[in-house]
Amino acid sequence: MSIFPAMTSLAADTARPRTADPLAAPHPGDRAVGLWLLAVAAMIFAMAVIGAVTRLTESGLSIMEWAPVSGVLPPLSQAEWERLFALYKTIPEYQQLNAGMSLAEFKEIFWWEWLHRLWGRLIGAVFLGGFLLLLWRRRIRRDLTGHLAAMFALGGLQGLLGWYMVASGFADRVDVSQYRLAAHLGLALAIYAYVLWIALRLLAPAPALSADAHGLRRGLWGFAGLVALTILAGALVAGLNAGLSYNTYPLMDGRLVPDSYLIRQPWWINVFETPAAVQFNHRMLAQLAVAAALGLWLWSRRAALAATARRAFDLLALAALGQLALGVWTLLWVVPVWLGALHQAGAILVLSLTVWALTRLAPTPIPAREAAA
């Protein structure tokens, strides 16, 4: 499974010669548009980290109403606070986990969810406002309109998916569905990767790609899929609170593969719903991703690459190693909020560097005279 659905067409586009790529030819507005999209990507990065804190503090179910416009304002009276708290008291999370919570304690979790939703609205405002301004100033090339429309549509879909996720925790369970959580995070990071991809292509056109680097590019696309799968597996860990058990490394309950890996039938359901299996799978995928990152780095050492492409692989390998260490630290410390949020930020950093490396390996054919030289 990949979190780059919107980038599939881009991969096909870049497989054509450079002259067929509409984003290859320079345009006077490229820098302004690229910086605007880079700012939007930074806001999505921050949104994902805020979302991690919201999840880790069990704050996501504190607002039980979907109010895209009026929800911008927080409660402005004691009566409104009491009304929202009364709504929260009707769901299983309060009744089974937080019974007796005070209004002051409710406010603590409310503010995280409110900030999370407000930040999403701000991203939409910055995207739409920037688009209208740049369009008015004639900075947006016609070739970009399809991409920008897709980004805006995906952003709207993400808002709906977020509410669909939250609604799963209002009845019959004390938390949101891990499947919907994974879908929500996956779409957020797909949008992030898409926006970052276009921004980097506008701000820094790819250098010419030598013939021996085409295989490396294909390997990097495979690595991107592995990173996506690892992040989605991490979302299942978060959704099942699987990181709060088996807090040892490298063994789980004294074994490489825990005894409780296959405790449910049919066997495949364990991959998605058994905490031991979900955590084990995330560990294995993370370690495989690090090995792949190091393999790509060694491969890049032997390829004829531009300096920026070589630097991208250097940083990607370092980030992958750092993220694995951060994940182990998070596990051993039983997932404190700040460290869990930092771990999610580290995953997005690995994703970001993967996207950057891919933009450095766009399949630009070398002009004949350069090849001859």
In short:
This protein is an all-alpha fold.
Description:
This protein has 373 residues and is mostly helical. The chain folds into 2 domains: 1-205, no CATH class; 208-373, no CATH class. It is built from 13 helices and no strands. It is flat and about 65 Å long. The model is unreliable at 1-20 and 364-373 (pLDDT under 50).
What is the CA-CA span between the terminal residues? 42 Å
Percent helix range: 55-70%
Helix/strand order? HHHHHHHHHHHHH
**Overall number of structural domains:** 2
Write the layout of secondary structure elements.
Layout: H1 8-14, H2 30-56, H3 78-88, H4 92-97, H5 103-136, H6 145-167, H7 178-203, H8 214-239, H9 270-273, H10 275-302, H11 307-332, H12 337-360, H13 368-372
Helix pairs in contact: 2-5, 2-7, 2-12, 5-6, 6-7, 7-8, 7-12, 8-10, 8-12, 10-11, 11-12
Key traits:
373 residues; mainly alpha; 2 domains; 13 helices; 66% helix; disordered N terminus; disordered C terminus
